[in-house]
Amino acid sequence: MNDALTLVKKTAPVMPVAQFKSLDHARACAELFAEAGVPAVEITLRHADAWQMVKMFKDLVPNALIGVGTVLNRRQMLRAVDEADFAVSPGFSRELSMLAHKTLSTYIPGVATATEIMAAMAEEHSVFKMYPATAIGGVALLKAMSGPFADAVFCPTGGISQANYHDYLALPNVHCVGGSWIVPSEEALAKDREGYVTMLKDLYQ
């Protein structure tokens, strides 16, 4: 799925992984991301209004690719195909992989082990979300995986922060990281919106 490779290159260095607290929080961040020129956003399906948030981002951030994260089943995948630009899962499912191929959708499956990488590569995937990255070995694990899986590209997510993301990006098999730290809370945004605009522009422009 070469579209997945294009996606991680476009969104480098950081894919915002957003778990918004409310529709108002999502709207405030959408307006921020539009102003700052954020190229892609992954909105997790961990809120009852997540699909409304996806639509809001599609409307308010038209120049960005808007994806759905925490896609766990067929129903969510099919809806993501219709309503989002890409889908991301925390693990690997052959059923979801087949749906992505059938619908020609951009899909990044999650992996945590060599066995899962092999299973996903057998379904013609080469771009993966390594999750939960820090908890399962972090930089050391990704270095180890580069030997047997020289063609694999990773977007590690989970436990990655402003303090350590450069360590991941220094690896040749990591094209971007997933991070929630660049998605401000409503309180932080109210306090220093201009600071976040500057930070995001520095990241992406």
Automatic annotation (TrEMBL):
Enzyme class, first EC level, given as a word: lyase
GO MF terms, alphabetically ordered: 2-dehydro-3-deoxy-phosphogluconate aldolase activity
Keyword annotations from UniProtKB, A to Z: Carbohydrate metabolism, Lyase
Domain of life: Bacteria
Catalytic reaction(s) noted: 2-dehydro-3-deoxy-6-phospho-D-gluconate = D-glyceraldehyde 3-phosphate + pyruvate
InterPro entries reported in the protein's UniProt record: Aldlse_KDPG_KHG, Aldolase_TIM, KDPG/KHG_AS_1
Documented EC number(s): 4.1.2.14
Alphabetical list of CDD domains matching this protein: KDPG_aldolase
Pathway involvement of the protein, from the record: Carbohydrate acid metabolism; 2-dehydro-3-deoxy-D-gluconate degradation; D-glyceraldehyde 3-phosphate and pyruvate from 2-dehydro-3-deoxy-D-gluconate: step 2/2
Protein family: Belongs to the KHG/KDPG aldolase family.
Subunit organization: Homotrimer.
Protein name: 2-dehydro-3-deoxy-phosphogluconate aldolase
Organism per entry: Zhongshania antarctica
Taxonomic lineage of the native organism: Bacteria, Pseudomonadati, Pseudomonadota, Gammaproteobacteria, Cellvibrionales
